Amino acid sequence: MSNEYVTINDVTLRDGMHAIRHQYTKEQIAEVTRLIDASGADIIEATHGDGLGGSSIQFGFSKETEKDIITTAVDNAKNAKVSVLLLPGIGTIDHLKRANEWGAQVVRVATHCTEADVSEQHIKTANELGMETVGFLMMAHRTSPENLLNEAKKMASYGATTIYVVDSAGALTMDDTRRRISLFKENLDTEIGFHGHNNLSLGVANSIAAYEEGATRIDASLAGMGAGAGNTATEQLVAVLNKLEIANGVDLYKSMDAAENVIKPIMERPVQIDSLSLTLGYTGVYSSFLLFAERAGKEYGVDPRDILVEIANMGAVGGQEDWIIGVAQDLAKKQKVYA
Amino acid sequence: MSNEYVTINDVTLRDGMHAIRHQYTKEQIAEVTRLIDASGADIIEATHGDGLGGSSIQFGFSKETEKDIITTAVDNAKNAKVSVLLLPGIGTIDHLKRANEWGAQVVRVATHCTEADVSEQHIKTANELGMETVGFLMMAHRTSPENLLNEAKKMASYGATTIYVVDSAGALTMDDTRRRISLFKENLDTEIGFHGHNNLSLGVANSIAAYEEGATRIDASLAGMGAGAGNTATEQLVAVLNKLEIANGVDLYKSMDAAENVIKPIMERPVQIDSLSLTLGYTGVYSSFLLFAERAGKEYGVDPRDILVEIANMGAVGGQEDWIIGVAQDLAKKQKVYA
């Protein structure tokens, strides 16, 4: 195991957007930014949950404008850099340029694990703008470690200086994580990052496994504030990093207090592992399917878990949430037939 | 990695007692036993949280008598064996004989990690009674792997057929767990078990690490119902075991439904990782100190975390909860001096 410094990229104000339907107020963004900054995390991500341009009918409107979200974070971060998420197709080059003007210093260009090609222009433009560029390979459990490496190599060739293994659905086991990160470490010259969700209760463990294999940049959010079962919780990760004597820049007590006293009260419902989020991790379905499955389950009187299992078998990826209604209807019909 | 069957020892009705101040009703014990039994777990533990004889002024009175707790579990378990916990000093040979008469087939004789000597009579008597005997070395983070092995050897010499590494405070990292279990595997002829708590969010991960090193008996509770941040949650563990194709006998959906629909509504407060339970895992203090520290913190106006850090530095073990008042008073005095 190396003994390198871990850069924490806090996603409370981006992935955490999902947990409150993107409704953070400017005041909350300002307060949370100040707390994260004061706790010592090196990068603070602030964007709509689905990235630049995400505020829309399809993904839900954010409470504040993109400009207000980003500039509020930038204005309140004394030491930390501010990063933005960009999913090509949702966000555009124009969005990127504006984010840069507003003060974002880091962009994380995110694609499905098999679609790195679509990140080329965005990574190149970000480099031209002088931004730090990170490639973000989502749903990393959905392809083999070897294929994931090939996609990572594309992002590196476009100029990304850090590439992430992104466990969007919290579906990777520790060995799954190790295989992906170690392959990256052997074959890439970039820095390597890991973004975990806690659906299988492995967020912290996978982050540590990733570090042991060579990842030096780890995503986390206070109290795990994020989609589905939540992200790796910053304060829990930092406690374990400290026990392992791995430097990370974050003050444990400050992160614990911010999580407990500020973030938990903001949550609309507790971000935790429950039947549905556990099913997401178990089946490996993208967390954006969760609310849709719950709603459709209620409407058609079927178990949302059965919907998600079926959706996983169909190989659905983010953006295909509309498949859910059809699946729910089919399951409801089958129930009637067998009732 | 071996590919052996994992025996799940469910502790919802024993460690879970702590989470509701030992107040399970007979009806709840009956229902929960039937659900665990139907889910397929092989062993169901039902005893006061602090084991046989635990119902007392010192540890809190259980709602039901020891006889009712045990016989209700025995009467409602069709397939699973019922186990009881016994901490020598709290429980006696007489308690053990009665538990055996009431139908308990397994006894787990628990001592502090450096005090296996006190388990001799109890393990020997249990063997004479024809019970299955398990040695349970608590607070396993508090001594070196080598010392823990020496204590385990004592329990084996008394006749225990399974020996557990018990992470009472949820303070072991994955490497800490591996070192202890692998040393047991190399040097003991007994079966090896692991009991984890989730204070550092490593309950499931440590259980998997323990399995990989040779543990074939794992403790878990539905929804993590247990002391402090809770135990390794059965449904989360089973989801990961299933993904790793490790047979364990438990039906995932039944355990998820029981956790969600029956156990969570019984909880007085959510069993989760919060500032205090994270501090317990971080400092390695026994979870029985938690409520005392909270109370003393309020009474003397000091941060309960500072009390626990101080208690950990003093090397306090279970039973020394009365140290907390003195620590709280000292901290309060220091605050005044520096205020």
Automatic annotation (TrEMBL), chains A, B:
Enzyme nomenclature, EC number: 4.1.3.39
Positions contributing to Mn(2+) binding: D15, H195, H197
Family indicated by similarity: Belongs to the 4-hydroxy-2-oxovalerate aldolase family.
Site (described: Transition state stabilizer): R14
Name of protein: 4-hydroxy-2-oxovalerate aldolase
Keywords: Aromatic hydrocarbons catabolism, Lyase, Manganese, Metal-binding
GO biological process: one example: L-leucine biosynthetic process
Record field: catalytic activity: (S)-4-hydroxy-2-oxohexanoate = propanal + pyruvate; (S)-4-hydroxy-2-oxopentanoate = acetaldehyde + pyruvate
UniProt-annotated catalytic positions: H18 (proton acceptor)
Residues annotated for substrate binding in this entry: R14, D15, S168, H195, Y286
Parts forming coiled coils: none
Species whose genome carries this gene: Lentibacillus persicus
Taxonomic lineage from the root: Bacteria, Bacillati, Bacillota, Bacilli, Bacillales
Domain of life according to the entry: Bacteria
Spans traversing the lipid bilayer: none
